[in-house]
């Protein structure tokens, strides 16, 4: 298979698509985190909060760009996709915007809020046993069978040039806002799972701030990208585990890997306890109810895993805020 490499021009092209449906997610300055990290007065810490989107995460940007660029090919057929939850609601939202039917294959452990949001935009959900998927391969099989037996078009949640480019629109927003305030960026910190979020943002950040250090973050027991960087090849983890349900892909996507390899300098990890502590910290200092996958970046910063040398600003991505209330309360009781 020929791998189509996503470029910064593709991200700019996606911006016109995304802007038809969404306003930019806010870039928020964190005075508490600046104080916590002991940064000098001339440096600032910002976080890009995708919890403000209609689906509570970044995923709808890539979904919108994918549907827009495949609209003719889809025609009156159904869109089929697999998702831990956030792409499910993202592709459901995009399907609604473009008048397309959507069926999503989700794990039986998906948070209720992600299921409810997905259904609220009109998608159908079919579930599989995630505890056995590394043996059965049900997730991929079910999506393939929907495509083959029901004539659906498959959409990847991360391993697709249009999805990568759509996600990168958020990176363009970060660059534009910082430059509007005459700021520079020394460190950009973003979670990595399948790699769509990071690949898209890395293209935009590297183009806007070529000297920025782009750092990935993964859960300690789902760090396939860290291993991939070390071995300079895509490494698969057969059974990644974490409370970060959105960061449990088995490996980074084939389309994502060349971009990540070129632009991401390192990947650090956070433990389950550190992620829970970061959720509590964000709630106490910013009043935000977040999901574990969304705050892995904050965990890495609070634990001083990221080298903050330099004189520019630090930007972290808060990728999503979809957590069930009962689970959230349990997680922050640390």
Low-confidence stretches at least 5 residues in length (pLDDT < 50)? none
Oligomer type: single chain
Largest sheet data? 6 strands, mixed
Query: In DSSP terms, counting alpha (H) and pi (I) runs of 4 or more, how many helices?
Result: 14
Calculate the mean pLDDT score and round it.
96
Placed side by side, the strands forming the largest sheet appear as 1-2-10-7-8-9
Quick one: how many beta strands? 10
Features:
334 residues, alpha/beta, Rossmann fold, 2 domains, 6-stranded mixed beta sheet, 4-stranded parallel beta sheet, 15% strand
Structure report:
- This protein is 45% helix and 15% strand.
- It is an alpha/beta fold.
- The chain folds into two domains: 8-57 and 161-331, Rossmann fold, CATH 3.40.50; 59-155, Rossmann fold (3-Layer(aba) Sandwich), CATH 3.40.50.
- The strands form two sheets. It has a six-stranded mixed sheet with strand order 1-2-10-7-8-9, with helices on both faces. The chain has a four-stranded parallel sheet with strand order 5-4-3-6, with helices on both faces.
- Strand 3 (79-82), helix 4 (86-98) and strand 4 form a beta-alpha-beta unit.
- Helix 4 packs parallel to helix 5 (112-120).
- It is globular and about 60 Å long.
- The N and C termini lie far apart (47 Å).
